[in-house]
Design goal:
The protein has 247 residues and is mainly alpha-helical. The protein is built from eleven helices and no strands. The chain folds into two domains: 25-71, Arc Repressor Mutant, subunit A, CATH 1.10.10; 74-234, Tetracycline Repressor, domain 2. The longest helix has 35 residues, at 16-50.
Length: 247
Amino acid sequence: MSLSPLPTDRARAPSRGADRASGRTARSQSRLSDLLSAARSVFSSCGYQRATMAQIAEAAGVSEATVFTYFAGKRELCIQVITHWYDEISSELERDVPRLHGVHAKLSHVVRAHLVTLLADGSGMCALVLGEGRAAEPELAAAIAECKRRYTAPLMDCLAEAQAQGHIRQDMPLRLLRELVYGSMEHVLWDAIESARRPRIDETAEQLTELIWAALMPRDASLAALSRFRDEVSQALRHVQPPLTGA
């Protein structure tokens, strides 16, 4: 009895239509990435209000109609730019902060990372997120607020735990501690934007960290000193190499 050819080989082989669809998807993702990069550059240099879709299209090397193929309008595009940017910097903090030991070490890392990140490419993205977070565009401001919640979570989780354990002052709500940390840095960033002068990052970060740390400490000075000592010892022990065992 003869056997008819099995159709499985043909079924497993990708169709030309599937190849074309895959190619379109890859091209679409590449085009989307290019548009977001161009939009970030335009929004950073012009701000949200003065930026136009025509400028973004020109920066991306495409027609304005192509931009509208991917985004309904300027607001949606700006939200996507800010969201992608926050995804990048939030992921870094979510990875790095839990690896550090002690509240002081985590605070110090976050303060320095915050200043470096927001001033890394000049003050463009910094001015955009700070300015539009308080702007009259409710949808844009709400999107930024949601991004900030994720971005600040690694440090705020640390402060909540430290507060529960009595390592930092317990007489202040966490929302005020959040304002203490990020509000202090926001003043430094606004000064950098308005004066067009880049602060000395390391020096400013150290000064801010110590100022905030002093405000976070419990009123009992001995407990504050003990908490700081514990953090410093914990950090130092991480770098201690175990003794070599000889034969």
